[in-house]
Amino acid sequence: xxxxxxxxxxxxxxxxxxxxxxxxxxxxxxxxxxxxxxxxxxxxxxxxxxxxxxxxxxxxxxxxxxxxxxxxxxxxxxxxxxxxxxxxxxxxxxxxxxxxxxxxxxxxxxxxxxxxxxxxxxxxxxxxxxxxxxxxxxxxxxxxxxxxxxxxxxxxxxxxxxxxxxxxxxxxxxxxxxxxxxxxxxxxx
Length: 189
What we know:
Order of helices and strands: EEHEEHHHEHHHHH
Number of helices: 9
Number of domains: 1
Number of strands: 5
Strand order of the largest sheet: 3-1-2-4-5
Structural class: alpha/beta
Radius of gyration: 17 Å
C-alpha cells in the first residue's frame, strides 16, 4: 500500500492494489505539493483527522482474479489457479484484504470509491481537487488489446464458476471486505 497525500494536509489517498490506483496516483501528481509516504505507511500515520481521506475498493472476487492475471503477466505464462491460491501468503501486501489497508475501520475515510463505478467516483475526487483531466486506463490488462469489448467481471465469473472451492476460499479469506464494503457474497453477474 502507498499512502499518498499532499504536503499541506488537505487530502490523503490510500492506494489498495488492483483497484485503479496507478491511474489515480498518476492523476493526483497533477496537484502541486504531493508526496508519497513510505510504502506500507498505515492510515493511522495521518495525524490530521480533518483532511479529506479516500480510497478505492473492488469486489473481492474480481480483485482476486485481477491479482491472479497480474501474476500470470509477470511470469509471462498461465499459472494453474489451484497452484496460485496455494502460494498466496498471508503477509504479502498484494493479497491482504482491502480492509487491512484502512485498519478495518471505514470511519478513517471521508470517501470510498468503488472500482465498479470507477469513472463516476474518480470524477467526484477530481472535482474535489479541481483537476480537469481525461481519465486514462493505466496498468491495464493486455487481454483488452485482443478483446477490447471484454467484460472482465463476466469473464472472471465464468472462470470462478468452474472452481467452486476457489469461490469459497475467496469468501473466507476476504469475508471482512465483503461485509465492510457492502459486496454480496455471490459471484458478479
